[in-house]
């Protein structure tokens, strides 16, 4: 098969959660174990860091990978979903997996795939492990798909586990309360393996404490290790000051990831790096700072408060759940205040180009959105997408009004025609929607 035929086979033949939703989710590890047994358990041949969480796990994974890469380690990175190219999911030192390896892996595993019928995610997890072993990485940063306890990635025994935060997402699979969701995420905590929790809530703290106690895993809460000091944001950078609660030392970082929500993620990352240093990793301060100011260049991360145009400001953000949208709205508020203080600013409007998927808590997102904004309802071209007309109807119940567009790019063009140079256009609501942006 050619590479395109191989990708078509993966997308068409294997159940894919990102396209069809919960029906593709396999709530056990048997298929992943069987696949990895067939290819001689490649995940046992290199070190790993395991990342779970409701929001921020992608950014956290990319930041950690960038730092390890800058520190001189050959670093694998497995994340999902992809925006444009399937190979974005599997990288080494920022370079995507080769097309030839993808073809070869699918050919080699075709018989067992036909026998056990793995999901798309199960097969790609095994592919990532096989690639990292074949290329002899020093360490790989592995992001969970969703959950943790029964996630396909949870066959690894990492050197460090990280749980970024807990919020309401994938409730049809993980549970309808924060403590149930936290219990699933806490499933990545392993015996004697240190774990960093980026943020906890009163409902979730004891879940992590109890699980870590059972596993005798050293537990670190990032918010108890570092406080966040001065933060300054611009269209292409974020300056963050952290203060060590233990010794009062101040640390300053200049990130090329400019979303305000990255302040919490970078705190989690610095806490994780501190632990890795204690466990023998050689990671110098200049490598940390250099990596954090070049995450996009080093790892190819996109879609996190990505400002792609000015006058009007056009932003892409993959926020798709209640907590993610809250973070976006905080950034919008800061932008509005900043522009109001500008002597040259006129009245600004916010334009939302929005599309969501059927199995998200759509109403919880819609009730957060500002009524004074202008809306352009659309949908990604996947079976799981909520049709734009349904989103428009739901939005009207919250006094949010706008036109329907079959394609996100048409919606963006319309928004740009309607916007003044001082306005902001935000494309959000679905990773897959952002992935279809070409204008």
Layout of SSEs?
Elements: H1 3-13, H2 17-20, H3 30-38, E1 47-52, H4 57-70, E2 75-78, E3 90-92, E4 95-96, H5 99-108, H6 110-116, H7 120-134, E5 139-143, E6 160-163, H8 171-174, H9 178-185, E7 195-197, H10 205-215, E8 219-221, H11 222-225, E9 226-233, E10 238-244, E11 250-255, H12 262-278, H13 285-292, H14 295-299, E12 306-309, E13 313-316, H15 322-340, E14 350-354, H16 362-366, E15 374-377, H17 388-396, E16 402-404, H18 408-418, E17 424-428, H19 431-435
Parallel strand pairs: 1-5, 1-6, 2-5, 6-7, 7-8, 13-17, 14-15, 14-17, 15-16
Antiparallel strand pairs: 2-3, 3-4, 9-10, 10-11, 12-13
Describe the structure.
The mean pLDDT is 92. The protein has helices at 3-13, 17-20, 30-38, 57-70, 99-108, 110-116, 120-134, 171-174, 178-185, 205-215, 222-225, 262-278, 285-292, 295-299, 322-340, 362-366, 388-396, 408-418, 431-435; strands spanning 47-52, 75-78, 90-92, 95-96, 139-143, 160-163, 195-197, 219-221, 226-233, 238-244, 250-255, 306-309, 313-316, 350-354, 374-377, 402-404, 424-428. It has 19 helices and 17 strands. It folds into two domains: 3-299, 3-Layer(aba) Sandwich (UDP-N-acetylmuramoyl-L-alanine:D-glutamate ligase); 306-435, Protein-Tyrosine Phosphatase, Chain A, CATH 3.90.190.20. The radius of gyration is 21 Å and the shape is globular. 40% of the residues lie in helices and 17% in strands. Helix 1 (3-13) packs across helix 5 (99-108), helix 4 crosses helix 12 and helix 4 crosses helix 13. A hairpin with a 4-residue loop joins strand 9 and strand 10 (238-244). It has 439 residues and is an alpha/beta fold.
């Amino acid at each position: 098969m050619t590479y395109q035929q191989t990708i078509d086979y993966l997308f068409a033949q294997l159940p894919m959660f990102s396209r069809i939703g919960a029906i593709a989710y396999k709530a056990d590890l048997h298929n992943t174990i069987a696949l990895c047994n067939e290819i001689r358990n490649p995940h046992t041949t290199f070190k790993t860091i395991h990342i779970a969480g409701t929001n921020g796990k992608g950014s956290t994974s990319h930041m950690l990978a960038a730092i390890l890469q800058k520190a001189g380690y050959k670093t694998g990175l497995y994340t999902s979903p992809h925006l444009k190219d399937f190979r974005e999911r599997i990288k080494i030192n920022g370079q995507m997996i080769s097309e030839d390896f993808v073809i070869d892996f699918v050919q080699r595993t075709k018989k067992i795939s036909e026998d056990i019928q793995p999901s798309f995610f199960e097969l790609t997890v095994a592919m990532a492990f096989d690639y990292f072993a074949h290329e002899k990485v020093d360490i790989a940063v592995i992001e969970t798909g969703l959950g943790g306890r029964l996630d396909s990635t949870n066959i690894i025994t990492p050197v460090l586990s990280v749980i970024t935060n807990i919020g309401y997402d994938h409730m049809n699979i993980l549970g309808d309360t924060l403590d149930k969701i936290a219990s699933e995420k806490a499933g990545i905590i392993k015996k004697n393996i240190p774990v960093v929790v980026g943020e906890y809530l009163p409902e979730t703290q004891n879940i992590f404490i109890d699980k870590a106690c059972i596993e005798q895993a050293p537990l670190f809460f990032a918010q108890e290790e570092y406080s966040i000091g001065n933060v300054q944001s611009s269209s292409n950078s974020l300056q963050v000051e952290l203060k060590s609660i233990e010794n009062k030392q101040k640390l300053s970082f200049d990130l090329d990831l400019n979303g305000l929500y990255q302040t919490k993620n970078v705190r989690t990352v610095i806490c994780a790096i501190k632990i890795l240093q204690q466990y023998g990793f050689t990671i110098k301060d200049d490598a940390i700072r250099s990596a954090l100011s070049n995450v996009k260049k080093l790892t190819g991360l996109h879609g996190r408060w990505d400002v792609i145009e000015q006058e009007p400001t056009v932003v892409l953000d993959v926020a798709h759940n209640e907590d993610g949208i809250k973070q976006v709205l905080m950034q919008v508020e800061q932008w509005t205040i900043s522009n109001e203080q500008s002597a040259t600013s006129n009245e600004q409007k916010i334009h939302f180009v929005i599309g969501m998927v059927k199995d998200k808590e759509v109403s919880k997102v819609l009730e957060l959105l500002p009524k004074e904004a202008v809306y352009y309802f659309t949908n990604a071209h996947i079976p799981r997408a909520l049709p734009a007309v349904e989103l428009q109807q739901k939005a009207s119940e919250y006094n949010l009004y706008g036109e329907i567009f079959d394609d996100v790019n048409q919606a963006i063009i319309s928004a740009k025609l309607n916007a003044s140079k001082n306005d902001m256009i935000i494309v959000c609501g679905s990773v897959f929607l952002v992935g279809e942006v070409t204008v």
